Amino acid sequence: MVEFSVNGTKHSFDGDPETPLLWYLRDLAGMPGTKFGCGLGLCGACTVHLDGVATRSCQTWVSDLDGVEVTTIEGLSEDGNHPVQVAWRELNVAQCGYCQPGQIMQAASLLSETPDPSDEDINASMSGNICRCGTYPRIRAAIKLAAE
Ligand code: FES
After folding, report:
1. Which is the CATH superfamily of the domain at 83-147?
2. Which residues form the 2Fe-2S ferredoxin-type domain (predicted)?
3. Which of these, 5, 48, 84, 88, is most buried using a 10 Å CB contact count?
């Protein structure tokens, strides 16, 4: 039996030990905010925080989460007013929006570790989060705005 928390709520799991966290969240926990893109750890759409660190949930087994605090886009803030979310709205970052929960979770993790990131810091942190709509300039601007 694995026990962990998701957005502050306790969860326990004793199913298939190779169940990816992404599918646990979406199919078993009823939290569809975390998106499936590639399933291979290559696109960032499934990014969540494990103990505050941005992590690809498609490559994380639930059986490895004992004692871990998981945060998803649904739990990043109570009211959608995390500074990153505010900046995202202010600059209308999203186009189709599909990758944006992962982008926001990656950006929030970056800013918690590096509150005033350089362009190089942003590129290094965000380069694994793919956006088919090409919203990268607005993502970078929103991270700078959130850092102010
Ligand atoms: Fe996990 Fe693409 S779905 S990195």
Report:
1. [2Fe-2S]-binding domain (1.10.150.120)
2. 1-76
3. 48
